[in-house]
């Protein structure tokens, strides 16, 4: 398979994830969508790594996974904290930034 | 054979992704993401990166998704209403998604990277296996590796602080 | 000890006195405060004598010294020192100021005895003397300005001394505002001097001026005219004189010290001090001379009709200062300074006597109600007559010699300056008439109620004091002469002060008899060294003819006053009806207050109102609310975007990202 297929698929997944972030209101699902975007990035990294025949891109993919894990941990921690405070689990209801 | 594998995995990944954003219940979203992650690890295998694929399955589909399932079970799923409070969001979000996709594809495909049309060079056996990645991580990328491990530690501590049951004195 | 060391001591004592009394007013008993105040000024006077002796011990050519304590400011080409300048002129002024001040402090010691603000009064008065001495001794224009502003403040504080009295506070403000006009003139003049000559120091300025300026060059004329603004405001010359009569609201010792003997003569000193500049700008000098002449005549006419005892004397002061300004402007420097000295003696004395009478009248100052004080207050009357004789230039008294010096000089200078001599004699006639008008209205005749009571019981009980101007009851809590009388007859310090001044007023002129001793001229001459005008000297013949004419005019004036107010007392009323318009003009002070009100105050108010109504409302408010509206509108627009939905922000973020990517794609293809 040519590399461009993987790249196009990665772009498609990334756009899907972004769309999900914009549409969904549950913080948990938004986190999932972020995972989608990160994984799309990973796919591109690994595809390029294969394209140039160099393992370094895969190392980056591994590190991105670490970052994603961190993000998940903190994000889920936040969700649990929000839940504990009996605040609504809906990003639209958290409107402190309203001008 | 390879094409069949690719399209199957690609369909799985795409379907999983669409499932994540389409399912009303977060629990189903998580399940869809697991499908997506497994498909992705298959794609990684197609790209001869065994370690990344394994890590994808073990770390993501295993540990992280279990965490998700626990949290969803803890806070309770509960779908969200269909009502969209922000005018135009329903319409603009897909539009922007499509724009992003087109732009990214055009950006990559119209670039002068000639190797895009190839599968890439022949790689020696052992490319992308744990040993190769391990060498790279501990030899060439030691500092990013250590930095990411510190980041993980900090995230763990942060998560404990955030989610702890401790009430503020006030 | 050197002259400059003495001079620093002269400055030190009054300042110390002011601080000690001002800070120690709780600790010091009233009497002690009075003693401290008087003694500190007395010490200043003694140091002044020390400086005089030290100067006299030197070669006449070398009798000028500059001394600096420290640098006041030293930056890029500007070097201002806290320095004094000691020469015969400043020492002369120091002696006059501190000498008369000592006597007036002594007088105040008795006069203010029952006043609640006794400490405050002495602290202010000492501060005033310090400021005045600073003004006189200053060695550069900056320090001069400082002293100039300080005396203005002291004058304000002392005019408004009885601060519960509204007329007094208003008068104080008026004096202060007009004095500030003068200060501005002086400051601008100092700036110009610095710009043209690059220095503020007297020595440097007077040295460089003749080399830098050609005669009547615009810049030197501008400098001199600005100096004159300062001099006129401080010395109450037309048209900046209106504050002086109102300043009589202050306690009488203040009128005597500040508004007769010392501060108001600062303008004369200023012109004499900067005579080098004025000789380079004869036009400005002529302006000063004619203003002096005009003031002398106008003020004399006002003094002729005033019925307020203190105000009449105040107008007389203006008129006499007119003589001095005229004198120093036409070049009769020594004569002008001599008149300044004798005037300080007799005018201080007149005010003191008037204060004594006013105290007996329970603060009533209307001469129409007075009469018969000759019998009731013998000592006061005698001193009053002494002062009036000197003011009227009765032959042999101090005013006789000093006034004539000026007029004789004008005659000797000749040409246009003969006008000054002739009109000066007209003024002298009026002076004699008005001074004896006061004497004849107040002293002889049937005693008024207060005088009668004084004769019978030796004491007057009078009701709670009232403001003579408005009739309101006075607030005596914060300082006001209570119902006690402080008249010279009952107070030894007042008697001493008035006695000494009476003697000086009578015989003070003897130190400067033309051709006989010439003490003042001899002492001051080194100051005017090199001045072409000072070289002009009236011949002895001119001097004595002038003295003869002056004496005859004084006697004539006293005679006229006698006829008008004693022999045929119905005449003034008749004259008044006959010359109704003239009398109205004089009695209304030539409508100067109204003119200033019309020409300056009203336009200023109108401009202010216009600015408030049009400029402020439309432009400023328009700008402000316009800006506010714009910001508010823009904020409203931005606010709509800030809807608080995080997903909205995310949408914008991605839209921005998509747009940016689009831009790069388009620009790279």
How would you describe what is shown here?
The complex is a heterotrimer of chains A (99), B (170) and C (669). In chain A, 77% of the residues lie in helices and 0% in strands. Chain A has helices at 3-23, 27-52, 56-84. In chain A, helix 1 runs antiparallel to helix 2 and helix 2 (27-52) packs antiparallel against helix 3. Chain B is an all-alpha fold. Helices cover 72% and strands 0% of the residues of chain B. Chain B has six helices and no strands. Chain B has helices at residues 2-22, 26-46, 50-75, 89-109, 130-140, 142-163. In chain B, helix 2 runs antiparallel to helix 3 and helix 5 crosses helix 6. Chain C has a two-stranded antiparallel sheet with strand order 1-2. The longest helix of chain C is centred in the last third of the chain and has 50 residues, at 592-641. In chain C, strand 1 and strand 2 form a beta hairpin. With 669 residues, chain C is mainly α. Chain C is globular and about 115 Å long. The chains are: A mainly alpha (99), B mainly alpha (170), C mainly alpha (669). Chains in contact: A-B, A-C, B-C. The interface between A and B is large, with 69 and 89 residues.
Poorly predicted residue ranges of chain A: none
Ends apart, CA distance between termini of chain A: 51 Å
Segments of chain B where pLDDT lies below 50 for 5+ residues?
none
Name the structural class of chain B. Answer: mainly alpha
- Give me the oligomer status: heterotrimer
Anisotropy-based shape of chain B: globular
Largest sheet of chain A: none
The greatest interface here is: A-B, 69 and 89 residues
Order of helices and strands of chain B: HHHHHH
User: Whole-number radius of gyration of chain B?
Assistant: 21 Å
Structural class of chain A: mainly alpha
Helix content of chain A: over 70%
Topology pattern of chain A, helix = H, strand = E: HHH
Q: Give the helix tally of chain B.
A: 6
Q: What number is the mean pLDDT of chain B? A: 85
Q: How many beta-strand elements of chain B?
A: 0
């Amino acid at each position: 398979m040519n590399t461009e297929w993987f790249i196009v698929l990665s772009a498609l997944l990334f756009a899907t994830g972004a769309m999900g972030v914009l549409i969904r209101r549950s913080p948990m699902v938004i986190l999932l969508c972020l995972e989608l975007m990160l994984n799309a990035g990973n796919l591109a990294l690994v595809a390029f790594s294969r394209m140039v025949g160099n393992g370094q891109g895969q190392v980056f993919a591994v590190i991105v996974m670490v970052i994603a894990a961190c993000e998940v941990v903190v994000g889920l921690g936040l969700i649990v904290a929000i839940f504990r405070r009996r605040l609504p689990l809906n990003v639209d209801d958290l409107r402190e930034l309203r001008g | 054979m390879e094409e069949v594998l690719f399209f199957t995995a690609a369909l799985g990944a795409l379907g999983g992704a669409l499932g994540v954003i389409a399912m009303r219940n977060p629990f189903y979203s998580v399940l869809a993401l697991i499908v997506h992650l497994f498909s992705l690890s298959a794609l990684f295998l197609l790209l001869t990166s065994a370690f990344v694929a394994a890590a994808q399955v073990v770390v993501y589909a295993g540990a992280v998704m279990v965490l998700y399932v626990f949290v969803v079970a803890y806070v309770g799923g509960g779908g969200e209403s269909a009502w969209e409070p922000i005018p135009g969001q329903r319409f603009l979000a897909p539009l922007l998604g499509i724009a992003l996709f087109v732009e990214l594809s055009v950006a990559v495909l119209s670039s002068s990277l000639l190797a895009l049309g190839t599968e890439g060079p022949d790689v020696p056996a052992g490319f992308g296996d744990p040993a190769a990645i391990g060498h790279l991580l501990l030899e060439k990328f030691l500092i990013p590796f250590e930095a990411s491990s510190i980041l993980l530690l900090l995230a763990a501590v942060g998560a404990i602080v955030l989610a702890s049951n401790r009430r503020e004195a006030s | 000890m050197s002259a400059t060391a003495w001079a620093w001591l002269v400055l030190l004592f009054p300042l110390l006195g002011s601080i000690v009394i001002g800070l120690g007013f709780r600790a010091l008993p009233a009497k002690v405060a009075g003693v401290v105040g008087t003694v500190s000024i007395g010490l200043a006077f003694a140091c002044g004598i020390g400086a005089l002796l030290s100067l006299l011990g030197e070669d006449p050519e070398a009798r000028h010294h500059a001394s600096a304590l420290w640098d006041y400011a030293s930056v890029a080409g500007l070097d201002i020192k806290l320095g004094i300048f000691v020469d015969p002129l400043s020492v002369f002024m120091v002696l006059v100021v501190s000498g008369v001040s000592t006597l007036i402090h002594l007088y105040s010691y008795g006069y203010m005895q029952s006043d609640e603000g006794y400490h405050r009064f002495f602290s202010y008065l000492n501060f005033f003397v310090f400021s005045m001495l600073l003004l006189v001794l200053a060695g550069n224009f900056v320090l001069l300005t400082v002293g100039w502003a300080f005396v203005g403040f002291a004058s304000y504080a002392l005019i408004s001394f009885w601060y519960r009295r509204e007329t007094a506070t208003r008068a104080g403000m008026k004096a202060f505002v007009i004095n500030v006009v003068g200060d501005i003139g002086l400051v601008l003049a100092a700036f110009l001097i610095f710009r043209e000559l690059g220095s503020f120091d007297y020595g440097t300025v007077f040295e460089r001026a003749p080399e830098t300026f050609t005669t009547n060059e615009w810049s030197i004329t501008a400098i001199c005219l600005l100096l004159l603004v300062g001099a006129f405001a401080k010395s109450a010359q037309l048209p900046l004189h209106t504050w002086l009569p109102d300043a009589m609201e202050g306690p009488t010792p203040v009128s005597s010290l500040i508004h007769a003997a010392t501060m108001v003569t600062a303008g004369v000193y200023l012109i004499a001090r900067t005579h080098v500049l004025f000789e380079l700008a004869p036009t400005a000098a002529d302006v000063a001379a004619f203003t002096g002449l005009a003031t002398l005549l106008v003020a004399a006419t006002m003094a002729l009709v005033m019925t307020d005892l203190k105000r009449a004397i105040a107008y007389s002061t203006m008129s006499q200062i007119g003589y001095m300004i005229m004198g120093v402007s036409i070049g009769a420097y020594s004569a002008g300074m001599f008149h300044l000295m004798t005037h300080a003696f007799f005018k201080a004395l007149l005010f003191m006597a008037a204060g004594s009478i006013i105290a007996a009248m329970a603060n009533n100052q209307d001469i129409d109600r007075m009469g018969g004080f000759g019998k009731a207050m013998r000592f006061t009357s005698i001193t009053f007559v002494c002062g009036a004789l000197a003011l009227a230039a009765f032959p042999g008294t101090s005013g006789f010699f000093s006034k004539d010096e000026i007029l004789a000089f004008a005659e000797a200078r000749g040409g246009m300056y003969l006008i000054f001599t002739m009109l000066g004699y007209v003024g002298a006639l009026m002076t004699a008439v008005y001074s004896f008008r006061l004497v004849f209205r107040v002293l002889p005749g049937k005693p008024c109620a207060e005088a009668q009571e004084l004769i019978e019981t030796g004491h007057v009980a009078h009701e709670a004091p009232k403001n003579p101007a408005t009739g309101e009851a006075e607030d005596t809590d914060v300082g006001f002469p209570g119902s006690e009388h402080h008249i010279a007859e009952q107070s030894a310090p007042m008697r001493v002060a008035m006695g000494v001044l009476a003697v000086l007023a009578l015989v003070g002129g003897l130190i400067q008899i033309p051709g006989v001793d010439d003490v003042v001229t001899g002492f001051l001459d080194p100051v005017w060294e090199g001045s072409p005008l000072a070289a002009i000297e009236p011949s002895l013949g001119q001097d004595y003819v002038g003295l003869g004419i002056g004496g005859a005019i004084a006697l004539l004036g006293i005679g006229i006053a006698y006829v008008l107010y004693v022999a045929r007392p119905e005449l003034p009323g008749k004259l008044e009806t006959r010359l109704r318009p003239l009398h109205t003009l004089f009695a209304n002070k030539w409508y100067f207050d109204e003119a200033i009100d019309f020409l300056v105050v009203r336009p200023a108010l109108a401009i202010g109102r216009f600015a408030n109504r049009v400029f402020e409302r439309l432009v400023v408010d328009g700008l402000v609310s316009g800006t506010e509206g714009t910001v508010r509108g823009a904020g409203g627009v931005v606010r709509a975007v800030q809807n608080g939905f995080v997903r909205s922000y995310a949408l914008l973020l991605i839209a921005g990202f998509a747009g940016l990517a689009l831009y790069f794609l388009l620009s790279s293809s």
